Each structure stands twice: as C-alpha cells, then as structure tokens.
Amino acid sequence: MEQPSAAAASRPPSFTSQTNALLRKNLIFQKRNRKGTIRLIIVPIYLCVILSVIQRVINNELDKPKYRCGCKCVDVNGTGSCQNVCGIQYSTLDQAASCPIPNPPKWPALVQVPLPEYRAVQDSSGLFTGLSDESCRKSQTCPASVPFTGANRTLSTSVMQNLFTSSPLSNLSDYTSISSLLLGTDVPGTSTGFIEPAFTSDRPLYVLQPQCISADSVTVPVTIGAVNAQKEIKCLQGLPLWRNSSATINKETFKGYRKGKTAEGINEIAIAYDFQDSNEKHFNVLALYNSTYQNVSYVPMPFGLLRISRSLNAVSNAYIQFLQGSSVKMLLDFTKEMPKQATRLTFDFSAVAGPLFFEWIVALLFPVMLTYLVYEKQHKLRTMMKMHGLGDGPYWIIYYMYFLILSTVYLILFVIFGSIIGLNFFKINDYSIQFVFFFSFINLQIVLSFLTATFFSKVNTAQAIAYLYIFGSGLMAGSLIRNFIEGGKFPRHWITVLEIIPAFSLYRGLYELGQYASRASETGNPGMRWSDLNDHTNGMRDVLIIIILEWLVLLPVAYYLDHASSVGHRPSSLSVLKRLLKKDPTRRRITVNGVADNDVQIEMEKPDISQERETVIQVLQQQSSSYAVVCDGLKKLYYGRDGNPDKFAVKGVSLALPNGECLGILGPNGAGKSSFISMMIGFVKPTSGNAFVQGFSIQNDMEKIYNSMGVCPQNDMLWETLTGREHLQFYGRLKSLSGSSLDIAVEESLRSVNLLHGGAADKQVKKYSGGMKRRLSVAISLIGDAKVVYMDEPSTGLDPASRKSLWNAVKQAKQDRAIILTTHSMEEAEALCDRLCIMVDGSLQCIGRPKELIARYGGYYVLTMTTTPEFEQDVENLVRKLSPSARKVYHLSGTQKYELPKQDTRIADVFMAVENFKKRVEVQAWGLADTTMEDVFVKVAKGAQSSEELS
Hints:
The protein is an alpha/beta fold. The radius of gyration is 46 Å and the shape is elongated. The two termini are about 50 Å apart. Belongs to the ABC transporter superfamily. ABCA family. CPR flippase (TC 3.A.1.211) subfamily. It comes from Eragrostis curvula (weeping love grass). Its main location: membrane.
C-alpha cells in the first residue's frame, strides 16, 4: 500500500484539518439524511397549518349573527315604515360585546362593602377591637367597619368623623340626589364601566351613615340609559376604628380571605385608610383594600379599582370639611366609560393554546440532537474518531454549529410561516424579541443535549426519556406557570426560581408572547415591544437573563463532562456520582491465589517470558527509540458484582515491540486478548501497570498517542450511510492527508483490501456484507502513517481469497510500523506475525518466533493410523516398538493418533515399520506429520489451564 512521505503524514493533524475532515463527513451524512431533516423542519409548518385551520373555524363561528351586534326594524319617523337599527338595546348578552357605545351611561360612584353575612365582627384574638358581636350577622345588621391609622391620631379621627354624613333616607326622591352621600354596594363589579351590575342586580344599595335605625330604607326610581327600575336603598352604619399601625390593618383586611369560606375567600372590611404624615397643611393618605377579593387579578383591570375612586373622593371631602367646614364639598358626581366603537368578537386560539404546543415544537429538537449524539456514542463512532486523532474542540465546533444551523432554520421557518398564515402570536409581537428569545433558548438546548448525552449509552433509552421529558415538562409548565401567574397568589420570586428549569423558562417566554398577542387582538394595541420588558409584570426579561446565564454556566460543564466520557478509560459522569455515593472500589486490596495485588508473583515463569520482562526493563532504562510499544506489568481487574468474585482479565503483561514487527497474540476465548487491546487503544483504563507507545504513556498521554495510532476493532464501527471511499477519505484527512496524497492513499487502500471491484467502494456501508465491513475496518486502520496499528481479529468472516489479499496488505504495511494482532487463525498468525505470544487466563504463557515455538513445544511427530477395531492393539504394539515413550492423544472407532518424541524416532524407521505392518494387517489410512502451530497452541493452552486448576 503506497503511503505518503513521513514528513507529510507524521505530524499531528492540525485543528483546521480535523475540522475540515469532520465538516466534510457531516455534510455527506446530512446529504444522505436530507429526507429526515426535511421532515423534521416541516413539522412546525404542519402545526401552523393546524392552528390556522382551527383559528378560521373559530372566526367563522364568531362571525355568525349570534355574536354580532343585535338589530331591529324600528319605526323611526312614525310613518309606519321601519328602519333597521342596531345597538346594544337590541342585543343579547352574547351580542352586546360587539356593539358600539358612542355615549356610555353615567353611573353613580359606589364604594365596595362586604356582604352582610361576612362583615367583620369581634373574634377571640382580641387584636381587632371595637367590632360588633357575632350575633349581628344573623340579623344582618353588622356595620361596615373602616379601620384607619396615621401619624397624627387626632387629625385622623377628626377626618374620619366627617367621612359619614347623616341624612334621612326619606329625603331621597331619585338616584340623582344621592351623589352627595357615601353610596355603596355589596355586588361585585366588572372590569368595564359600561354596565354597573349594582343597578341591574336585585341587591339593594347602601348609604353609609354614622347611625341607622332598623327599618331605615327607601325605594327610588332608577333611569340610566336603557335601565328603568325601582332600586331599594338601605342605611348601613359605617364604623371607623382606630388601629395602631398599617400592619394591623393589613392583617385585618386579609383576615377573611385567609379563612377561605369560599373558593375566592371573603372580604370583611369595606375600606381602610392610612393618613401617614397628614396635617393641616399637608394631606397624604393611602386607601387600603383587599385586591384578592373574588380573584380580581384574573381581569386586566381589577374591579376593585373602579370602586376605589369613590372611597378616595369621600376621604378627600372629609379632609376639606375638616379644614373649611361642612358646607364645602368636592363631589364626585358620576363615573363614565370612554366611548366604544363597534368591535368584532375575537378569540386568538394560537395565543391562548399556542404556548404549550409551541413549547413542544421547540423542544422537539432536543431528542433529535440527543439521539444523534448518543448514536455515535452507542456505536463507538465518537471513540473511533478520537482514536484516529479527532480532538474535542473540532468535534464540538462542527456538531454545535450543525445543531445551531438546523435549529435556527427550523425556528425561522416556523415564525415566517406562522406569520404568513396570519397567527397573531408571531406577526404582532416584535420579531427581534422573538429572535433573541428563540436563539438564546436553542443555544441552551444544544448545550443541554451535549450534557444529557454523557448520561446515556443507548439510543432507545435516551429517546424514551427525552420525549417523556419534553411532553411531561410541557404539561407541568403549562399548568403551574399559567396558574401561578394568573392566580396572583404565588410569590413572583418563586416563579423565577421555577424558570431555572429550561422547560419552564421556555413556556414563560411563550406565555408572555401569547398574552401580548391576545391583548393586541382584543384592544388593537401593538404586541410586545422592547419597552414592555421594563414592565414588572412582564416576565420576558427575567426569562432571557435566566436562559443566557444558564447557557454560560452549563457550556463549560457540558464540555468537561463530554470530554471526560468521550473515551472509555476516563471516568463517566455516572461513575463520578457513584464514587461519591459509595466506597471507591479501586481502594480494595486485590488478591490472586491468596497474594495481594501489590505482591502478585508469577510462579514458575517461563524463560522466554522472563527474558521479555528483562528486555522491557532495559528498554525503559535506556529509553530506546527503536521500540514502538513497551508494556510494563499491565493488569486489568474487573470487580465482581452481585456476590461474584473479582476477575483478572490481564495479569502483569510485559512486552517490548520494536518498529517494523508484527506481534500476534493467540489465546482461547476469555484469555484477555481483547481486554489487552482495549487498554492499549484507550477503551478501558488499566488497573495497574503502564504501557508506552512511541514514548507516550497510555495512562496520561492518550491524546498524543491517538495521532500516531491506527485501530481495527473487533466490532466494526462504521456509519451505515457513508460509503467505503468516504470513510477512508474522512480518516485520511484526520491523518493530515489532502489533495493527491489523499486520493492515492484511498485508492491504494481500497485496492489492497479488494474493495474496488464491482463498485463496492462507492456503495453505502449498510449494503456491505460482514466480510466487506471487516476489510474496510482494516483499510481504515492502515491509512495514513500510523506508527502503531492494533488489529483485533481482522480476518473474521472473510473468504479465503479476501483473506489472502488482506494478508498481503498487512505484510506490506508492517515494514515501517509496529502491528499488534489478535487472531484465532494459526495460518494467519504464521503468515503475518514475526513473533507470537500465547495468552491464557490473562497471562502470557510463551513468546517467540513461530519456528522457535514449534521447536520448543513441538518436539514430536504425530502418527495417525486407521484400521478395523480388532487390530487396534496391534497398532499400539507397533507404536511402542517405535518409541516406548509415545503418547496416545486420540482414539475413536479404529482411528488412533500418537505423539512420537523426535529424539526416539527416525522417519525412515517409521516408514519401514508401517510397510511391514501393512503386510500383516489391513491399514485403511495412515500418516506422519510434523508439529504445527495449532498443536503448539493446544498444548500450551491445555497445560496452562491444567496448572491453573491445580493451583
């Protein structure tokens, strides 16, 4: 395989070359996955269409005569011919809201008083003095208490004495004569002044006076606009009560609410005043009232505020009379709403229901990004890229930018299409606010994806939890945030604390946009603008601050955890938590055959193993540069779980591998071969010992080792949608290859592993057979100028022709690099490896060149003979004559196999004896063979296992 010059390829890949390689690979990957990407992007468009259809259905329903201002054919001129006249007087309750009101009615100003059964009475606490006994509630004669306080008690008391005036109710002839009195009602108000419910209700009105007689009431005619009725007016005693502080008044005002006798609480106090520092020259008063009464925070303008104007006018009148006498008055004659134009009844469905659906649409990107990251983690693709030199910086830049571009396009199309089809949620609110909000959140969501990916190793698990999170958190946010905000009872700072959860902050921002869009639809005002963020009731500013701060905090945390878990031997996020929760298992003393780990001794170590260990010691002392790999007492222990004992996978392996040599590692299944390779390539961390690759330690310098390392793992780590050529181009660029050097290296690699025939190089890997994938994995490990290559059973699943081609490629590649290869094929080991070592139960049993091992462990011939069963004893007698120390190793149905020591046996004697034997006995078949590598392997493995069982 032709390689580029060492000067060009030996230097580590630059940041630019890594970024370029990953970018090109991702562009190809996304090109193949474009259908899925398009489907993802058009999901919000589908939702916008659905919302638009629902909105049109609602608009069509609201356009029906049922909701349009009512009309009637009226004889206007008295000619008998009617004229169609529209107005609120001809409308039902459903129609009235859309009618014009050019001349709103004038309503007498009222003060809110409690219902008779809820007015304040004396309780056992003794804190609120001066109140009536509780028995007055049964007779409904309890007065309306009016607590007051101030710095100057004398002045405050004098003013309060002027608050209520005495006037016989019999003097009232109609409602126009009561504006000089303090008139009240126990009927809740509304958020609009077009209709005063106190005059349409059958409840009486009250005149607050210092004293009342039991039957003090009068009925007066009421004519206001279209209202013509008889209204009962009763006397209600107003009871001013001095309190020492406004804190006491607050407790008294909210006492009834805290009792919770109704769903909304009750109101026991009519009004309260705090005169503060008022004196004869300075009037400063606060009107105190219970704003939670009847959930007034649910309406844009609490009805309690509409009743406060009369209370303030009354106390101002009382102060003026205190200064100027009872003849001076400043009357509040009436209250009147602003004229109203004809309106169309509207309901913005997207603004009301949109926040929850829009949250799901935005959060839908989270499981998509998480799946992408966990997929590469599950299939070890991230680790494979890292082992070929890809750093964390380029990986984060490319994937972060890809996710950012995908999310930005996704949401821009969402907003644009929503605006085009007329959703007020998008087209009314300032687009720059929407962009900043969405852009900030998608950056936070990308960081959360990287952070969350460190805790998952399976795509299915990650997807399931991600979807449960986005739908569950969306429902929780929609329920809690809306209720907390609209209820007005949950502290604002605790709402801000909840918004630290990303799903809650996303919902709060969408909720605010929806509220402004809804109000704009009703009032015609513009939607949210930047100046609105200064409004203390607008939570968008807090949301933006929280999202940006979270992004700044979680970005370095996510990068660190991702870096820590990107390679197997580093501690994962979960392992760190586990170590904090329980005792660190690495502190346990490890014993093998009763000997502590620190004192493990290898009993009866073979001379070749001892010699290799001495070579390692010399190389480490001399720091020889001619050795590519040096392993010094490498050990790997897997701790037992659920009562199982600890298991040593690798026990003190010491090896010295010079440049240009291929070392083969043989062993039965479970011998520790793959564990050894996994430690060398950074999959797992050694329990103890160390290894040096090109002078760098696998314990501390894996980042530097990756630049000069090639790996063919036991399991193929490939992208299903990339072709073989694209795989090699990507990994070639990671090895600093470019231009013609890259093209030549890719072509030679494909040719060497027989992937150029039949267009296999340009087929997607998902169409490859298992053998083709193995060949591609070998080609990936050899491309570039990797100084050390690890191959874990590279020829598994290959046909004989492909195997021979693969061997030729490895033979050519090992001329200028060191190769460590594990295999179960003795033929492959003899063909490729300069030296072989046999590993059994984690320990090296022998090491040397194939011929040396055969000579050392194969000093015998193998004689095989097949006869009829009755001549088996004759065959054994023949063998004993040839070699008394011969050993029978196989016997079945007349076929016997014997090992004949070479020092006792001459081949000519064997042939002569067999020929003479054939004259007397019918021999069906026979053969004499020298020892093979397979025989050596079986003998060493069985011998080691027997020794292990005896020990």
